[in-house]
Amino acid sequence: MKNSISKQLIGDRDVEKIVGQLLRFGVITASLVVLLGGILFLVQNGAGARPDYHIFKGEQDSYITFEGIFMGLFTFKPMAIIQFGVLLLIITPIMRIVFSLFAFMLEKDKLYVIITLIVLGIILASTFGGLKV
Amino acid sequence: MSILTFTLILILGAYLAGLVGSLTGLGGGVVVIPLLTLVFHVDIRYAIGAALLASIANSSGAASAYIKEGITNIRLGMFLEIATTLGAVLGALIAIYTPTNTIAILFGCVLLFSAAMTLRKKNQEALTEGSQLSAVLKLNSSYPTAAGPVNYKLRNVGAGFSIMTVAGVMSGLLGIGSGALKVLAMDTAMKIPFKVSTTTSNFMIGVTAAASAVVYLQRGYMDPGIAFPVVLGVLGGAFTGAKLLTHINPSTLRIIFCIAITFVALEMIYNGYHHQF
Q1: How far is B252 from chain A, CA to nearest CA, in Å?
Q2: pTM reported for the whole predicted model
Q3: How many domains would you assign to chain B?
Q4: Which PANTHER family does the protein's record reference (chain B) (predicted)?
């Protein structure tokens, strides 16, 4: 590919196609990770009694922080693998926004670079605003 | 009940939820909440967490197909996502102070409204005259049909933006995509042809849900034991639904499901009113 990707080289339709592929790739990857974690979870705990989901335990549960999920992931804990898949699923639409930002930058569409930055800012503020690390 | 039995039944239930959600156009998330609370007696907060994930999976999966056809208006989606993400963050904040029974009643009302919206007369017309703001924001576009590309313009951008904020609040508060409210904003207020409004709404749902998802993850709403069967089941159901839609005309099915969903909605309101949640 040439060094300068101009508007002629990458048009609106190409951008849309890449966005579509990005979304599909994210969903497929996330579900495969969730499936892997789920199978491991069932192999290890399948015979156990169903947890009492009638009572909301909320923040007492583990795997609600990025740190907790990654620590569990590296020790191959099934619950952490499922939560990692869940994170991948949540990140997929956010990655779509990031990609759109670059696409609008290449098109030199200043108005939509600003609009996309606002959307990204709101999501990141919400994600990291109440972060418990 | 063992974890294995619970998981298998839940996968099956979530599969049906995804199928119904796809055939009615309501989305999988909105069917998952009554399934988990009324059938499996799961706390509504876990149900909301699972529904958010189902909405994201549904939206990203379906959007990739629609974008390929070139119907989705990406600029319009991006512009309105300012409103829906702001609303979603607000909704997730309000949720802390809202009793679960109130959330159940509110959910029932939104479900009733959504079922009614599915059966409404759809806006097929494309406007040739748009408002000044729609031109400034480059929202006017075209979409492909069998008879060639159709150009459309839009108006009432402010009203559409406001309704989108409400849709975002509902999405953040209840964990659903609020596709019906999004379509209301685009179809009824901004006068966008329904094919464009439904696909663009679907496209936006993932981003709207992602805006509040991490907040809910950190509040412990997303339990891996529920998330895993729900995500896989809903995705499978939505996939089957999308395949079925190309072979059958779902208008009769849609009416049957909408009546069924009306009863489900009434039960949610009834149970919420009697403090069953």
Answers
A1: 30
A2: 0.89
A3: 1
A4: MEMBRANE TRANSPORTER PROTEIN YDHB-RELATED (PTHR30269:SF23), TRANSMEMBRANE PROTEIN YFCA (PTHR30269)
